[in-house]
Amino acid sequence: MLSCQASDALGAFGLLQEFVMLRVFPKAQDAGKRVVAACASFFALCTVITMTTMIPRGGISPSKLMDAIIKHLKLHKEAYGETHWVPKFHYSLHLPEQLERWDLLIFCFAHERKHKEIKRYLQGRQNTSATWDKNVLQDVLHIQKLALNEDFPYPRGTQLLHPRPAADKTVKFFCLQDNFPGSREILTSVDAKAGNFVTCHTDDVVYLQWDRDMCIGQIKLLCSVDGECMALVTIWTRLPQMNMYNVSGDDYFVLLSDIVDTCVYRIRDDVAYVVPPRGAVHRALVN
Predict the structure, then answer these.
(1) Helix (H, G, I), strand (E, B) or coil at 267
(2) Domains of the chain by residue range
(3) What is the tens place of the pLDDT at every residue in 136-170?
(4) What are the distances in angstroms from CA 246 to CA 51, 66, 189, 235, 268?
(5) Fewer CB under 10 Å: which end of the chain, C or N?
(6) 0.70 cut: is pTM over it?
(7) Residues 6+ positions from 174 with CB-CB distance below 8 Å
């Protein structure tokens, strides 16, 4: 059993899904019906996790989320019975209602998420009267309200992070391009925001919507030309095998906003195996 923090699990479940899909599921038929049922339950759970984490990007309706949750619970019951049924299975059925009412999901109870914040105000308190809980929560609420009034510390939207004027070599490169005649301001950076939920870096492999197609490529340069944020990307050639790409390809400038998500990948002998990112799964679920 994998025991870790929720954030670690969210980062690892995509790789675990690929492992089960490529290594376990092809042999499940020989292993028996129980293994097939367990794989089906796990894949249904992955769909639920993907849908919930992609809700901020839009397109996931409460009805779609409810259908996915019910499908997982049914497949889990078929695979494992009711022996390991826990209250959280029932709690998950309330998530679509919460989404419909508030247009967002709160994944942790407030005390569980902020227990360290609350403990700050428990130290040294000797008052055990009936107002003890009230006083603690008043202090917590006061600090949280002050925090909400501060400027949002994480930049939003599409932009370069810590941009700087382009080096002379880069400026000369742009002067040779037909797409940028008379460019006045050229900035570069090693990392950027492709959207509110996507941060990318040079050399990252990305999944992008470009020229009315979905492509995989590797970022060679992040830049802003006269205020237009772009990325120079080597578009990889898709191979017949699932999620396999040849790392050779042509270089193109694409808008930074066209980058959907970053990818986990492995390169061996100029062939890359790419794990489809959440953004790709999200578009499939929405469409």
Answers:
(1) strand
(2) 6-102, 159-286
(3) 788 878 877 777 666 555 667 899 998 999 998 88
(4) 30, 39, 27, 9, 10
(5) N
(6) no
(7) 166, 180, 183, 186, 225
